[in-house]
Design goal:
This protein has 112 residues and is an all-beta fold. The protein has no helices and 11 strands. 0% of the residues lie in helices and 51% in strands.
Length: 112
């Protein structure tokens, strides 16, 4: 049975940091690109970061470039998203995705 479970979300002040984790099980984690999406209230879900299988290529949306870092541990089967210098506009539900599998999402709220 496939499981993707995000953790690490929460409430943080502007300029703060959070590290999201996505723990995977039930499929071959190391065979798939890792993706982080987010969906803000009233907006469409958007891809914000992607990492290749071997972590030798990555993609970032312009809105997070230079502030967020995606990484993965293929041995532990965990996908990470390090988020620094958070802004109120980063408030959203964050989802991990590998292959056709989605996590349930974790809420990130950036507010003073």
């Amino acid at each position: 049975q496939v499981h993707l479970r995000e953790s690490g979300g929460g409430l943080v002040q502007p300029g703060g940091s959070l590290r999201l984790s996505c723990a995977a099980s039930g499929f071959t984690f190391a065979s798939y690109y890792g993706n982080w999406y987010r969906q803000a209230a009233g907006r469409e879900r958007e891809l914000i970061a992607q990492v290749s299988v071997a972590s030798d290529n990555s993609y970032y949306a312009d809105s997070v470039k230079g502030r967020f870092t995606i990484s993965r541990d293929n041995y532990k089967e965990i996908l990470y998203l390090q988020m620094n210098d958070l802004k109120p506009e980063d408030t959203a539900v964050y989802f991990c995705k590998l292959s056709d599998y989605w996590g349930q999402g974790t809420q990130v709220t950036v507010s003073s």
